[in-house]
C-alpha cells in the first residue's frame, strides 16, 4: 500500500510517516530505486516504534538516537563517556580492582565475610 493509506491505518499523517522514515525508524526499502510500499512488516515496525514512544514518553527523534547509540560504537562510546562524567553511569569494576580492595581490607584488619567464626568442626 502507498504512504497515504499506510498513514491512515496507523492513525498519523503521511508527513509524520515520512519524518519517521527520514529518522531511520522504518525498515529499508526492499527494492532499490522503487517507491516505498507498506506491507504488514512495515506497518508493524512503525506501530512498535510508536508504542515505545508512548511507553517511555519519548519523541521519534529520541528513539532514533537510541537506535543510533546501539548500532554505532563511536556514538555509544561518546554517550558512555558523558554518562560517566556527569555521574549517570558508574565505571565497571574490574576483577583486579576487587582483589586490590580485598587486599587493602585484610591489611587494615578487616575480616572477610564468612570467616568470622573460624573453621567449623565436622560432626
TrEMBL record:
The UniProt keyword set, sorted, is: DNA-binding
Q: Name one GO biological process term.
A: regulation of DNA-templated transcription
Which residue windows are transmembrane per the record? Answer: none
Q: Which GO terms describe its molecular function?
A: DNA binding
Which residue ranges does the record assign to the HTH merR-type domain? 1-48
- What CDD domains does the annotation carry? HTH_MerR-SF
User: Which Pfam families does the UniProt record give?
Assistant: MerR
Keyword Cell cycle included in the entry's annotation? no
Name the domain of life this protein comes from.
Bacteria
Return the SMART domains for the record.
HTH_MERR
User: Which InterPro entries did the record assign?
Assistant: DNA-bd_dom_put_sf, MerR-type_HTH_dom
Q: What is this protein called?
A: DNA-binding transcriptional MerR regulator
Tell me which species this is from. Streptosporangium album
